[in-house]
Amino acid sequence: MAQYFDNVSLPSEIxxxxxxxxxxxxxxxTDHGVFSKEKLDFGTRVLLENLPLEEFSGKVLDVGCGYxxxxxxxxxxxxxxxxxxxxxxxxxxxAKMNAKANKLSVSIFESDCYxxxxxxxxxxxxxxxxxxxxxxxxxxxxxxxxxxxxxxxxFCVIHKDQGAKSTISELEKLYDVTILEKNKGFFVIKCxxx
Length: 194
Hints:
It is a single chain. This protein is α/β, with parallel strands linked by helices. It has a single domain, classed as Rossmann fold (3-Layer(aba) Sandwich), CATH 3.40.50. The protein has five helices and nine strands; from the N terminus they run E-E-H-E-H-E-H-E-E-H-E-H-E-E. The strands form two sheets. Strands 5-4-3-6-7-9-8 form a seven-stranded mixed β-sheet. A two-stranded antiparallel ribbon has the order 1-2. The N and C termini lie far apart (34 Å). 43% of the residues are buried.
């Protein structure tokens, strides 16, 4: 659970790794106390490899960005203005280091879900922190509606064993929902803000 909240008391041991997603390679630093510090987690990979990047435009927000793989990938593959936010200060520090290392211009800020989000976005994307609990996950996914422009897009990935089907049922009450991919139990979900 420490990876989701403030963990500056954990000892630091920064590790560097090279991550290739389709034809894009990012140099990423990770550390204790952040999600998936050893390698890019499979859910994030499935999400990124199945995004319709041609549908991305304008302003994009990566919620619960961790050390930044989703937002930085989008900053390197689209012309969008990409913002990244997280509640975990160590993750934010790493995301800033990783943006600089990959020479990417993004905005990175601290926010507990949408507490410090003041703008509207064309796209919101998240690999939500399942272990932080359903309340937090739903706050990210359902709360996106009020931070998206009309017909804005929400993308997320959830494993079937972590409530994908019930989450999809809830999403369908607010959005037009499409399943873009299913891979080893991970559902890549696209929602249109109606």
